[in-house]
Specification:
The protein is mainly alpha-helical and 216 residues long. The chain has nine helices and two strands, in the order H-H-H-E-E-H-H-H-H-H-H. The two termini are 30 Å apart.
Length: 216
């Protein structure tokens, strides 16, 4: 049974310029369907928003869109405004707990890529891969309460719950690429983007987090 039958919210916190610009920036180059899935909106709404952003030169391209320099500046301003309205103490506490489970996710992804003997995982051993799937599910069970607390603090991030569960559904259905393939909305891809959101909302930088050993 799939955890979510529908990954689109017709109305809600995802439908904002901030959500659309964030989706384009996170993906680097993305089509309308990808933006809609990330932002949690109908494709028609994403198309309308992208057309407006394109006219204002905040994104470029089409059908594959990229954020422009002006778009990055506009997004930074929107994130700063959102940050001002967030309970930073609550978000910092959630981020601390996220850091604990982040280490477990990194270990699971490393196991997916490299076996214990140091050889690359060629995915020819279904039992080994199944063990990694179990590790990812255990990580998600630990992570879910942290995600819920984060969403309580920043409602705009609610679509991440849907995206994580969609990735797990695809893994459970045998689509192992949804573990970590970058070009898909894989579990690791969504994790990376969620982490990036927290870094921005807390006024941190990925370079700082990487130096502290907290980045993927």
């Amino acid at each position: 049974m799939r955890r979510f039958a529908d990954n689109v919210m017709k109305d809600g916190p995802g439908m904002s310029e901030l959500a659309i610009l964030t989706a384009v920036r996170m993906k680097g180059r993305v089509d309308t369907a990808g933006v809609a899935a990330c932002a949690g909106v109908e494709e028609s709404a994403a198309a309308d928003a992208l057309a407006d952003l394109l006219a204002r030169e905040l994104v470029s391209g089409g059908p594959q869109y990229r954020i422009t320099k002006d778009g990055k500046e506009a997004l930074a301003g929107l994130v700063a405004k959102e940050r001002d309205g967030i309970d930073q103490a609550a978000l910092s506490a959630a981020y601390h707990d996220f850091d604990q489970v982040n280490s477990a996710l990194k270990a699971a992804i490393t196991a997916w890529q490299i076996r214990e003997d140091g050889t690359p995982n060629d995915h020819s051993d279904p039992d080994y891969d199944s063990q990694v799937f179990d590790k990812i599910h255990r990580v998600h069970q630990q992570f879910s309460p942290v995600l819920d607390r984060t969403i309580d603090t920043v409602p705009r991030l609610a679509q991440y719950r849907v995206r994580f569960c969609n990735a797990l559904d695809r893994i459970d259905e045998g689509e192992s690429a949804y573990v970590a393939r970058p070009i898909l909305d894989s579990y690791h891809t969504v994790w990376f983007e969620y982490h990036e959101e927290l870094i921005g909302l807390l006024g941190l930088s990925r370079a700082e987090e990487a130096a502290a050993g907290r980045a993927e």
